[in-house]
Write a structure and sequence with these properties.
29 helices, 4 domains, alpha/beta, 20 strands
């Protein structure tokens, strides 16, 4: 086999559905993702971050290398996911960007990153206007993230038809990747005449039934417009083996299976697979390690060469052309029916159906089509071309700063807009953005309309309706009623969920809020937090105008005024507020729009409240406030994350008292418990409970102290062993991981201080004494970064300290499960510390 003719490419489609609350533009707590805050955070920790720093280990499970998989594989990230990563997991986001940049260095200037249609809609089911927006937004997002134009574009679910591919070609996309079963027929280009020539001399196409297309080279698809696009049909069986057949159990077996895909001919060949990127670490634990090892083996193999699609296409242009099946995809045996009908593709729950899919799509289509002419009507008074303005709005989505917004209006406004017109213009574009988000494919993919993915797209529709009612006023009359009439036909398989209309009312509208609710959240939170005069709460800006708080005993009353503004549309309003807190969860609040003529009444209420609080006359305080406000907000009115934070603050004092009581019980009876343990006698459950609580609490506090209380930690660890106390492994492991990461960051920031190295090494030695495995992933990354920074050992210490520093640093690595004797510095830019 000729070395330069056998190439391998592994593509990962990294994507999660957008999970942001449509009104807050943030992902709220998702309990099903515990112990993580939400599913994005969990999958990031298990997959996106780990692929940026994938381990290769020896037979003793010690790390020998840390590699950035993104530099060697082909990949695409959903733009909405990248947006979340850039805001919430910046180190992981930088790993992805580093990997993309290095891929261009490795593969002759061709990026391993592909663009993706913006928010994962099923393109053949979209109208032409939405398809163009999806392509243009996807390209713009890619340029923003990686600084260059994309060569390839990934289609959601690889769902395609010829018109979608033609639009991509017209927008400058060179290639895409499809499933082998999407190929209908092929023929050699060299022997073919111009596309569409019906003469008998034109060679007949060769059918490719049952996914029988040769996947080892690209194909050209021609369009009547004269444009063309290259298509790579991936290796289906090997891709399925990765996803469903345990191929990631062995990196060696993974590499061997890929090499089996080469055919017995002397032509340049590309063996390539495409799978969900989440296979590498989330769906398959340690899958990123199998991928890293396989890539390493393939890289070292003299008979194969790693490559990406862009580089292969540039070297070996298509010699064959192809036709695809319109309305086909990689995840539905019936084309694209999974996203519009009860086709039978689902999770397989007995007795359930997906008849709800069709009315859900019909309801959304009707809503989209109803707001389109209204958008054109109002948009014509604001923009030169409302649909061009929508395509260009991606620049504002990516950067909502003042300069970006100014550039946007300078380009698209029909005349210099007033502040009020700008608010309307941005509101209109936000409404259109949510008409795109409500088509996210995950809403149809799973078993029932009551699932979280479908609830999410229904919430996007609710946001569309709210904005339409604000923008179009009387013209939007009946919009919601018509939407709900269609949505009510979407019946849930879960009796308690009812139908789509009930889900919309109970869950979609349950997220809805206006500026008043934001003001109420700010008011209640202010009793438990210290805010600056200017602060941000999610996507809202708060300008505090006045604030006073009066206290008597456990009772507190806060009164103030603030202006609340949306950071998205600029819409703003001034409010006054009052909050009464009588301790624990007993809190009530009121909010009222504040006008200039309210100033005298508000000052009078403030003065009367101040006087009554000084006399501890809270019944009268309530009567005073009730005359000016309606007290209708309470702790449940808070946004979910803040509600939990404040409840935790309230609970902390109670938990502290409980912990102290249990600790005292254990201290008083510890010798008895020791005796029972040594004698092998049963321990009373109450005493065992107190012991478990006290010891775990002691270990936790020792780890959380600054610096770590080493002697106390060892003492409690000894007690746990002697008294056979079960340790709270998840909590202790989590805290230990954070402490080790913090210590390594301190060492890195100190340029390798000897004193800090001593403290860090002592902590690492301590953690090796824990009787369970720790996840020290972040600390290991930092150690590897420090190793790569040659200036540490050379400049941070005197010559006489250098041998000692090197010795202790190597021991630190061994404590972190790193095989220090074999690690090399061959990839100085391969690692960025994880989040």
């Amino acid at each position: 086999m000729a070395t330069a003719k056998h190439f391998v490419c592994i593509h990962g489609h990294f994507y999660q559905p957008p999970r942001e609350n449509p009104w807050l533009e943030t992902v709220e707590t998702q309990d099903s993702a515990a112990p993580y805050h939400d599913w994005n955070e969990r999958i990031c920790a298990e997959c996106y971050a780990t692929n940026g720093a994938a381990r290769i280990v020896n037979t003793e499970n010690q790390i020998t290398r840390i590699l950035n998989n993104y530099a060697r594989m082909s990949f695409n990230f959903g733009p909405t996911l990248l947006s979340w990563l850039s805001e919430n997991a910046q180190r992981t986001y930088q790993m992805i960007r580093d990997g993309e940049r290095r891929s261009r260095e490795v593969f002759d200037g061709h990026s391993s990153a592909m663009a993706q249609v913006y928010n994962h809609i099923i393109m053949p089911l979209a109208n032409e206007r939405d398809r163009l927006t999806q392509i243009r937004w996807g390209i713009a997002d890619y340029k923003h993230r990686f600084g260059v134009a994309p060569e390839g574009m990934w289609l959601a679910e690889t769902a395609a038809d010829k018109r979608t591919l033609e639009l991509m070609a017209e927008e400058g996309v060179l290639f895409t990747v499809l499933a082998p079963r999407q190929c209908q027929s092929v023929r050699p280009i060299a022997a073919a005449k111009a596309a569409g020539d019906p003469s008998p001399a034109t060679p007949e196409r060769i059918g490719t039934p049952n996914a029988s297309v040769d996947t080892t080279h690209p194909y050209l698809i021609r369009f009547d417009s004269g444009k063309s696009l290259a298509v790579f049909f991936y290796d289906g069986p090997t891709s399925r083996a990765v996803a469903f057949e345990g191929l990631l159990d062995s990196g060696e077996g993974f590499a061997a299976r890929l090499k089996q895909g080469f055919r017995e001919n002397n032509q340049p060949q590309l063996v390539h697979i495409a799978t969900d990127g989440e296979s590498y670490g989330h769906h398959h634990r340690h899958g990123e390690m199998a991928l890293a090892y396989a890539l390493r083996l393939l890289e070292q193999d003299k008979n194969t060469k790693l490559i990406n699609y862009g580089s292969f296409l540039a070297q070996f242009p298509p010699q064959w052309e192809a036709e695809i099946y319109d309305n086909s995809s990689w995840s539905c045996d019936h084309g694209v029916e999974r996203w519009r009908s009860n086709c039978g593709c689902n999770g397989g729950k007995a007795g359930w159906n997906q008849l709800w899919r069709a009315p859900l799509r019909e309801a959304l289509d009707a809503l989209r089509d109803a707001v389109a002419p209204l958008s054109e009507k109002i948009g014509s008074t604001l923009f030169k071309d409302v649909w061009a303005a929508r395509d260009g709005y991606i620049d504002v989505i990516l950067d909502r700063g003042l300069e970006s917004v100014e550039r946007y209006f300078a380009m698209y406004q029909s005349h210099p807009l007033t502040d009020e017109e700008r608010i309307r213009a941005l509101g209109l574009m936000e409404m259109q953005r949510h008409t795109q988000l409500m088509y996210t494919s995950c809403g149809w993919f799973f078993d029932d309309i009551s699932g979280i993915e479908t609830v999410q797209i229904i919430a996007y529709a609710a946001r569309v309706i709210q904005l339409a009612q604000e923008l179009f006023e009387k013209d939007a009359h009946g919009l919601e009623v018509q939407f709900l009439e269609k949505l009510a036909l979407a019946k849930s398989n879960v009796p308690s969920a009812g139908d789509g209309a009930r889900i919309y009312a109970q869950q979609g509208l349950g997220m809805e809020l206006g500026l008043e609710q934001v003001a109420a959240h700010y008011a209640i939170s202010s009793v438990f937090s210290t805010f600056a005069d200017e602060t941000e709460i999610f996507c809202y800006r708060i300008h505090r105008i006045s604030y006073e708080i009066f206290t008597s005993g456990r009772g507190r009353v806060a009164l103030g005024r603030a202006r609340v503004a949306s950071g998205i549309t600029g819409q703003s309003q001034m409010f006054s507020f009052a909050v009464l807190h009588f301790g624990d969860q007993n809190i009530t609040a009121a909010v009222k729009a504040y006008l200039n003529e309210d100033a005298e009444s508000f000052e009078k209420v403030t003065a009367q409240t101040r006087e009554q609080v000084l006399h501890a006359n809270f019944p009268e305080v309530i009567r005073v406030l009730d005359r000016f406000y309606e007290l209708d907000y309470s702790l449940p009115s808070l946004f979910r994350d803040e509600q939990r934070r404040i409840l935790q603050l309230i609970l902390n004092s109670t938990l502290w008292d409980l912990e102290n009581s249990l600790k005292n019980i254990y201290d008083d009876h510890a010798t008895l418990l020791h005796y029972l343990s040594q004698a092998g006698l049963p321990k009373p459950p109450a005493l065992a409970l107190a012991a478990g609580f006290a010891v775990n609490s002691g270990l936790r506090r020792a780890l959380e102290s600054d610096p770590v209380d080493l002697s106390s930690f060892r003492s409690f660890l000894s007690m746990s062993h002697a008294d056979e106390i079960e340790l709270d492994t998840p909590t202790l492991s989590y805290i230990a991981d954070l402490r080790m990461k913090r210590a390594m960051l301190e060492l890195q920031m100190s340029s390798g201080s000897m004193d800090i190295l001593d403290r860090t090494l002592n902590l690492a030695r301590l953690l090796t004494e824990l009787p369970f495995e720790l996840n020290l992933w972040q600390a290991q990354n930092l150690w590897y970064e420090i190793l790569r920074s040659s200036t540490f050992a050379l400049t941070a210490h005197g010559v006489e300290d250098r041998p000692r520093w090197t010795r202790d640093f190597n021991e630190l690595g061994c404590c972190l499960s790193i095989a220090c004797d074999v690690i090399t510095a061959e990839e100085p830019t391969a690692v960025t510390t994880g989040d």
